[in-house]
Write a structure and sequence with these properties.
Elements: E1 10-13, E2 20-24, E3 27-31, H1 46-69, E4 76-87, E5 90-101, H2 107-117, H3 121-126, E6 145-148, E7 152-156, H4 166-170, H5 190-197, E8 205-209
Antiparallel strand pairs: 1-2, 2-3, 4-5, 6-7, 7-8
Length: about 220
Amino acid sequence: MQYKLEKPVSGTIGTEKYQCSIAWRNGKFISDEPVTSGGKDLGPDPYTLLLSSVVSCTLMTIRMYIDRKEWVIPDVAVQANMYQETKEDRQQTIIDRDILFNCPVTDEQKTKLQEIASHCPISKMLQSEIKVRTFVFRDTETTEVKYANEDLTIVWKPAFCEHSTRCWTQLPEVFDPKIRKWINPDGAAAERIAEQVKKCPSGALGFFYNKKEPPSDGRQ
């Protein structure tokens, strides 16, 4: 398993309705609900963020194709909206995407770019099977199994494991669920093991250094 983003998108919310601070690899922005939903409209709401991913991905995909074909089309616009309807007791979401050209474009080029838009990665992802997995980090006392090398000790809490598969798909030299003693603490350097263990979303994996510890980040 290899995540699409090297650094995950993260967010926090306090008591102010309903402002979320969203952090991405190069900065932060606020997401909020409109006034009609109890927010202050200080940033895009979740539906707007979803549609903005469709719009931006479509524009980028179209621009890549135009540049590759060396067509002279300096200005393209895309707008998107969505609605939901129920058919046969099943809710369906429809996203409408409009492509606008603010310069002369032939009908043949428009037809081709309409086709290319449907192949943008976000469009393809939204029309494929999507699963959303939710994990909660736990740090209460429970049965522990420890695996140690000279530098650090890996702590496994079987009761907390939610099988995110991050450990054994991203560091198979250390984690191998196919064998009984599935953690090999000598399979990688201590720093690499520590880095991977911190990615466990459920609290099933932890670690501590056997000697002098570096500054704690709350996950050791």
